[in-house]
Every structure is written in structure tokens, then in C-alpha cells.
């Protein structure tokens, strides 16, 4: 590895990269323009809506997100997991024992915020659990409810400097629910009755539509997604709170 | 009625965006961004997409504002101080 080929390589690489980007952009534009002419998206939506009642989930959006496009949801959850891991690496990379006692030095939060959050915390957690559990009946579901629960815990962290989520428990919850999601998908794949990844292998009679115990496997998967999203977003919040330095410039918050 | 509400929400969102851009105090700028997301929640609801509205409310209004507030907390409130 002498100097000249290295310089050459550095000059060639951006050229190749920009060529690749241009090609991808042209491909994307061609596909988009071609689709726009045929009005494909409208027919797909109508077909999904017409097919949705077979899953007996009152909320058609949930049927699409968890059942028909369940594989995409698995990918989204994985992306969120990668983001949480990256943020933990980024914010946890301080040398020495800076993470040991960073939160105790902070000025105590004011009384109004502590009292308000003490009042708000159980209501927020209950609301988040409601959104997660009723994901197949009403708008919302695992993602939204999980973020609401994580927000409640974040407010709790702000109000009480000694409150910390146990990293071990968060990681355990996250990996258990993630593996549960994949196991449900594989069970749907292996059982003869469904034969597809994330197939709805539990009984889901259309007569029970609108009840809490309906739609077979969909609410179970959405509860797992809720636990996973809540744990990941909570871990992100905690990493950021732990990093906050002593409060010399700030006025409140 | 729906159109009037939509126009009001557009005005609300543009006002929030202007607040976020023009305000020198970074804490108020974050509040402006949060107002934009709140207007987007109303727009999604008017477009009969309550699922998306709920997601926007949880992530756009609450979570992303909290993340930005953490940044403001570390860097200081004044835009010129850095």
C-alpha cells in the first residue's frame, strides 16, 4: 500500500458512489412515474380494505400493519432496535466513570413539576396500555402505546433524579418480545392451516369482531410490539437523560 | 367547516414554523416545532387517519420534542452563546 494507488482509490470511490446514486434515483423516478400513470396505489388500498374483514379485526389499519404487512413491521422494529443501540453506543461512550454519578449533581426539579408528574404518570401508563391492548379495535396500537408508556417513564425520570430504568430488565423485555414476534411468525409459517409467515393461526371468528378477545393472533403480536417499542424508546430516553451535565446554563426544564 | 378548520391548522403550523425559525431562545424554538407537529396531528385527523394522528401525537409532539429539549439542556438556551 504505497501513496499513489491510495490517492487514486479515494478519487475513484466518490465517482462510483455518485454514479450509483444517480442510477438508483433514475430507477426510483422511473418506477414512481410508471406507477402514477396506472393509479396502482388506489386499487391496492381498495383490495386490502375489501379483504380486511376476514381477519376479524375492527381496525383495518391494524390488520394491514400486523398481518398483511407484518414482515415490514418486524423490519421497522429492527430499525428502531438498531437506532437505540447506536444511541446507547454514542451516548455511553464517555471515558472514565462519568456515568457513575452524573444525575445526582443536578439541581432538584421544582415542586410543581414533581407533583404534576406524580399525578400524570399512572394516567399516562394506563392510557398507553389501553392503546396497546385495544390496537385491533380502535386507532393506535403497539407503536403509539409503547411510545406513550416510554414518555411516561421519561417524565418520571425528569421528576425524580433517583429513578432509573434497570438496563438488564429493559434488555430482557426487549429481546423476549422481539423473539416472541419472530416465534409467532414462524408458528404461522409452520402450521399447516396458515402456511405463511405471521399467518393468523389462532381462531378468529368474524362474529366476535369488535370484542377484546378477537382477531386471533393480531392483539398478541401488537402487545409484543408495544413492549418492544416501549423498552427501546425508554432506553433511548434514559441514555439521553443520563448524559445531561450539571445545570449551569439552563434556567428550568 | 372542515376546510375552514384545515386552513386554520395550516395557519397554526406556519406560525409554529416561523416561531421555530425566528426565535433566538432555543427552548421557544423547540416549542414552535412541537406546535407544527400538533397542527399536523389535527390535519391527519381531518384526513380521517386517526392512526397516523396518534403516531404523530406520540412521536412528533412528545418524543422528538423531549429529545430536542435534552439537546437544548446540554448546549444552553441562547442561540449565540455557542
Q: Round the mean pLDDT of chain A to the nearest integer and report it.
A: 77
Number of domains of chain A: 2
Spell out the helices and strands of chain A N to C: HHHHHHHH
- N-to-C order of helices and strands of chain B: HHH
What is the overall shape of chain A?
A: flat
The percentage of residues in β strands of chain A lies in under 5%
Q: What is the CA–CA distance across the termini of chain B?
A: 46 Å
What is the tally of helical segments of chain A? 8
Strand content of chain B: under 5%
How is the quaternary structure best described?
heterodimer
Count of alpha and pi helical runs of chain B: 3
* CA radius of gyration of chain B: 14 Å
Radius of gyration of chain A: 24 Å
Shape type of chain B:
flat
The major pleated sheet of chain A works out as: none
Q: Please give the share of residues in helix of chain A.
A: 55-70%
Average pLDDT value of chain B?
84
Alpha-beta classification of chain A: mainly alpha
Structural class of chain B: mainly alpha
In terms of per-residue confidence, which ranges of chain A show pLDDT below 50 for 5 or more consecutive residues? 95-101, 246-253
List the chains of the largest interface with their residue counts: A-B, 27 and 22 residues
Model description:
The complex is a heterodimer of chains A (253) and B (82). Chain A folds into 2 domains: 1-35; 51-246, no CATH class. Chain A has 8 helices and no strands. Chain A has helices at 3-38, 40-51, 60-68, 70-91, 111-133, 142-159, 167-190, 218-243. The termini of chain A are far apart. Mean pLDDT of chain A is 77; it is low at 95-101 and 246-253. The mean pLDDT of chain B is 84. With 82 residues, chain B is mostly helical. Helices cover 83% and strands 0% of the residues of chain B. In chain B, helix 1 packs antiparallel against helix 2 and helix 2 (26-46) packs antiparallel against helix 3 (50-75). Chain B is flat and about 45 Å long. The A-B interface holds A 59, 61-62, 131, 139-141, 143-144, 147-148, 150-151, 154, 233, 236-237, 240-241, 243-245, 247, 249-251, 253 and B 27, 50-51, 53-55, 57-59, 62-63, 66-67, 69-70, 72-74, 76-78, 81.
